[in-house]
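Chain X:
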Amino acid sequence: MIKKNNLNIQHIVSMCPNREFGGGIVTTVRNLIGRLFNKFDFKLIGVTYENIEVENNTGLKNIEFYPIVKYKLKDIGNRSSLKYGIALFKKKRELDKLKSIFHVHRVDSAFPLLYPFRIKNPVIVHIHGSNTYWKFLGKSWIFRKLHYFMEWLVINRADKVIMVSKKRIK
C-alpha cells in the first residue's frame, strides 16, 4: 500500500467535473490526478452550472470538488472568465487557509491569486500551448497587449511555470 504524502494539491481550472468538455486542460488535470492519486490529496476548484447537479464525473474516486461560481450555460465565454476570476479573488483568503499547492491552468485564473497581494501557498501556473494566442487573435491590439502584460506579471510572480509549447516562451 502506498502511503500518501501530507500534501494537498488544488487544481484551479474553470471546468465542472459533471460536464464533458474536452481539451488540453481537462486532459491534463485528469492525467495528473490519475497518475498521482495514490501519493497526494487533490481538490478540484472550478465552476458549476445552473440546473445541473454537481456530481463528480471525472472518472476518479474521492476527488473533492469545490465550485466557486455558478454559470448559466448561455454565458460561457469571455464574461465567464472574468466572473471566475472575481470569484477566485473573493475566495482568496479562504483558499489560502487550505495549506496546499495551487496548480492553476490559466493565466487569468492565476492572476487573482497573485495580485494585488499574493497568497502564501505555492502557485504553479500551467500555460497550455498557444491557446491564449488563438483566443485573443480576433480581439483588439489593446486587449491582446493587456493580456500579454497580465501573463508577464503572473509568470514573474508564480513559484513555478509549466509551458507545454515552445511558442509561448519569449
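Chain Y:
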Amino acid sequence: MSGPVTPVDAPPDQAPAPPEDHPCVEFLPSHLTRVGELEVRRALPRRARRNVGAWCFLDHMGPAKVTEQHGVDIGPHPHIGLQTVTWLFDGEILHRDSLGSEQLIRPGQLNLMTAGRGVAHAEESTGRYRGVLHGMQLWVAQPDSTRDGPPAFAHHADLPVFDVEQGAGTVIVGRLGDVTSPARRDSDHVGVELDLRRGTSVMPLEPAAEYALVVAVGAMSVGAREVEPGGLAYLGTGRDELAITTTAPARGVLIGGTPLDDPLLMWWNFVARTRSEISDAYDDWVAASERFGTVASRLPRVPADPPQWHPRA
C-alpha cells in the first residue's frame, strides 16, 4: 500500500511550510486516492506540510473488506532514500522484496524496509486471510549518512508497550519517554500507536521536536480541537507533554521528530534531494537494472511515466 506520491501531494517546485516553533493544533485534511484496489486517505505529504520531522508520507488504509486473493495487491515497485513503516490495526499483508524477504505482517507487528540506494518490493494478499484490513503505511526520509547505503529489511514481532492513564501505547520506532523500540532508526524520529479508553492521557514529548497525530478509530481531543479519522493534526514544536482526551475508545498514531534542515524532493516512490537523483532512479527502474533487483511476486512490475523534467516526458 505504498505510494505513489503525486504532484497533488507534493509539487516539486513549491516550498513546504516551515515547522511551527510553538505549540499549535493545525488540522490538515487528507485526500482520497487509490493504491491498487484500495481507497486510502493520504495525510502526508500535503502542499502545506510535506513532512513532520523525517516522516514524509502517511497513507491510512481501511477499514476495508478483503478476501484471500483480493485486497492489497501492489506489484513490484522501487524506492530510494526512505524507510517504509507498515503498521496494521486489523488484518494481514504479505511483503516480498528484492532482498529475498517474504514476511507476513499482523496487527502489533512492524515491517521496516530500508531503501537506501535502491530496493523493490510488492505487497500482496496472503492467500488465506479474509476479513477486515485496516492500517497505515508511513515513509521516513533517510539522512545523507544512510540514504545512499545498502537496502535492508527487518520484521519486529514484539515491540515495547507502556501504560498511560487511560490505555496503552506501543513504541513502533524511536523513543517516547524512557521506552525505546528495537527497530532501526537513522534519524531522530518517533512513532507510537495509542490505544485509549475514555478519559485523559498524558505523553512526554521533546520540546525541540515537532509532532502530529493521526486518528484511526474514534476521536481524540487536543485542547479544544477534536481529531477524527480523515486528517492529520499538526502539533508544532515546543511541547514537553501532550494531553489527549477521549470520550470513547479511540486508536491513533503519534509521529514526531527533529525538524529537517533541508527540503525533500519527492516524486513517485522516490525521496531525494535533487532531480538528477530521481531521474537516474527512474531510468534504472525502466531499464530493469540490477540496482532494484527482482521480486518473487505473482504481480506485474508497476510502470511509471517519467518525471515532468525528464527528457522522455
